[in-house]
UniProtKB/TrEMBL annotation:
It is found in: Chromosome, Centromere, Kinetochore; Cytoplasm, Cytoskeleton, Spindle; Nucleus. Belongs to the DASH complex SPC19 family. Pfam families: DASH_Spc19. Transmembrane segments: none annotated. Residues 100-141 are annotated as: Disordered. Keywords: Centromere, Chromosome, Coiled coil, Cytoplasm, Cytoskeleton, Kinetochore, Nucleus. This is DASH complex subunit SPC19. GO terms for cellular component: DASH complex; spindle microtubule. Residues 143-170 form a coiled coil. It comes from the Eukaryota. It comes from Penicillium olsonii. Residues 108-140 have a biased composition (Low complexity). PANTHER family: DASH COMPLEX SUBUNIT SPC19. GO terms for biological process: attachment of spindle microtubules to kinetochore.
Length: 178
């Protein structure tokens, strides 16, 4: 019986050694299991959505943004029109000022001519008798006054013509906007 028990003991010892080797192998394989779980776990970087959901989101975004864009476009076009009108006004004002300057320059040259004519007239009057001198002086003064009045009226007409042109430009601009 001892022989049969010894073979059982030997068989049990070999089974224990095999089991011990299995445990060691299993332990080395399972020892790294938490790290492997973390490495092998998948993280979703992008979420996939169905196409109808994506279209709905795009449409809602479009519905939300469209009124704001339309409002901003209206504001910008109004501002551009305002700046264009201001530019036209400044151009007309510039034309008016240039007209005034040129009429002043012409007025100065015509005034110098009228002064030369009046001084020549005075020279002629001085050569005549004293009685005709007072008549000639009054005529010269009247002539000078009339020349100045003519220059003022010419300037006023030029100014009114420039203003009329400016109003016509503004009217055409407002008709073009409508």
């Amino acid at each position: 019986m001892a022989a049969s028990l010894s073979s059982s003991v030997t068989s049990l010892q070999s089974s224990l050694n095999l089991l011990d080797n299995s445990i060691t192998t299993l332990d080395s394989g399972v020892n790294d299991f938490p790290r492997l779980c973390k490495v092998l776990s998948t993280t979703r970087h992008f979420e996939l959505l169905p196409e109808p959901t994506l279209r709905e989101a795009q449409q809602s975004l479009l519905d939300e943004i469209t009124p704001s864009i339309a409002h901003l476009l209206t504001l910008s076009s109004n501002h551009v029109e305002k700046l264009a009108r201001r530019e036209q006004g400044l151009k007309a004002r510039c034309d008016l000022q240039e007209g005034r300057l040129s009429s002043n320059a012409e007025g100065r040259s015509s005034a110098s001519r009228s002064q030369a004519q009046s001084s020549a007239l005075r020279g002629r009057v001085a050569g005549s008798s004293a009685g005709s001198s007072s008549t000639a002086a009054s005529k010269a003064a009247e002539y000078k006054r009339l020349v100045q009045k003519k220059e003022r009226l010419k300037f006023a007409v030029d100014r009114l013509e420039l203003q009329s042109q400016q109003k016509q430009r503004q009217l055409r601009k407002s008709m073009a906007v409508q």
